[in-house]
Design goal:
Order of helices and strands: EHEHEHEHEHEHHEHHH
Shape: elongated
CATH class of the largest domain: Alpha Beta
CATH architecture of the largest domain: Alpha-Beta Complex
Number of helices: 10
Number of domains: 2
CATH superfamily of the largest domain: Spore Coat Polysaccharide Biosynthesis Protein SpsA, Chain A
Strand order of the largest sheet: 3-2-1-4-6-5-7
Bound molecules: uridine-5'-diphosphate, magnesium ion
Strand content: 5-15%
Length: 317
């Protein structure tokens, strides 16, 4: 039977969590009464996670296991799971049981109201304030401000998607938390549902505070890809022209000072500034042109259209 529901769970050294995970997820899904599959991606665990997952699979073939050769990161885990998913709806979940599988039903109900993405929102986070919640709050504000999708909790792994949403997304680096933002490119309806947040019982977190910086850098990438990936010259060219024009004006002024007033300009800092601005301007514009060429290669090499169609009415059926 083709499953309606695909649950994708990345696992990296979660040995002790596997048994309770199997139990909780299975209980929650059986209660929903829809055909499902669970795709667990073992992201190069060095503990006994895989051995335990193999047992789970032998006992319950609805649990499909993908094992990476080495640790490729959580985003790669999600990507592999999305590629393997057969259901019309894909739900992602952490393996450490910080997410509560009983919330899956709530997400699905919301999805059937006509949304393409339903994101969990951990309204009562159980993690420490300074090292976790504060960076996370800041990140959520920044991501919401910089993209077209405003969410309270980008970092929550528990999310449900229509499968065409995740099938159309390429995840690079650690972009998994940006899926709703990346998907906004194709025009999606996004909703949020409050979910339960729990303490990690076994194993430890795979991330430290340095994640904050990486999230910030990723945000720049995502923002750029979203707004300018089909017209990079508009960013670089705009800045370049401004800089060039400012340099030119200062240069003209200095020329006037030299020729009309007969003063020396060779030692004036302003001269340096003029030169800097002109060079910067030329460089920005050429960079924009290069980016335009790269963009074309990017879209044409993978036959990636610059639009996405929701539906089409034509013919006379
Ligand atoms: N994870 C993974 N690969 C990694 C790091 C983490 O598959 O390189 C998985 C991990 O096993 C867990 C989920 O991603 O299921 C979230 O990781 P973690 O709980 O460490 O993150 P936190 O909840 O602390 O943000
Ligand atoms: Mg966790």
């Amino acid at each position: 039977m083709v499953p309606e529901l695909s649950i994708v769970i990345p696992v990296y050294n979660e040995g002790e969590n596997i048994a309770p995970l199997y139990r909780e997820v299975t209980d929650a899904l059986v209660a929903l009464g829809r055909p499902y599959e669970v795709i667990v991606v073992d992201d190069g665990s060095t503990d006994d996670s895989f051995a335990r997952l193999r047992q789970v699979h032998q006992q319950d073939p609805r649990w499909r296991i993908i094992r990476f050769r080495r640790n490729f990161g959580q985003a790669a885990g999600f990507a592999a799971g999305f590629a393997a998913a057969r259901g019309q709806v894909v739900v992602t979940l952490d393996a450490d049981l910080q997410n509560d599988p009983r919330d899956i039903g709530k997400l699905l109900d919301k999805l059937t109201e006509g949304y393409d993405i339903v994101s969990g929102w951990r309204t009562e986070r159980k993690e420490p304030f300074l090292s976790r919640r504060l960076p996370s709050m800041t990140a959520n504000r920044m991501i919401s401000g910089a993209t077209r999708v405003s969410l309270h909790d980008y970092g929550c792994s528990l999310k449900a998607y229509r499968s065409e949403v995740v099938k159309g997304i390429r995840l690079y680096g650690e972009l998994h938390r940006f899926i709703p933002a990346l998907a906004s490119w194709m025009g999606v309806r996004v909703a949020e549902v409050p979910v339960n947040d729990r303490q990690r019982r076994f194993g430890k977190s795979k991330y430290g505070i340095s994640r904050t910086l990486r999230v910030f850098l990723d945000l720049i990438t995502v923002r750029f890809m979203l707004s300018y990936s089909t017209r990079p010259l508009h960013v670089f060219g705009g800045l370049g022209l401004l800089s060039f024009a400012a340099g030119l004006l200062i240069g003209l002024y200095l020329t006037f000072v030299k020729l009309a007033l007969g003063q020396d300009i060779g030692t004036r800092p302003l001269l340096l500034l003029a030169v800097l601005l002109v060079i910067l301007g030329v460089q920005m514009v050429s960079m924009g042109l290069l980016a335009e060429m790269i963009t074309r290669t990017y879209h044409e090499a993978q036959d990636k259209p610059i639009y996405v169609i929701r539906e089409q009415l034509d013919g006379d059926e």
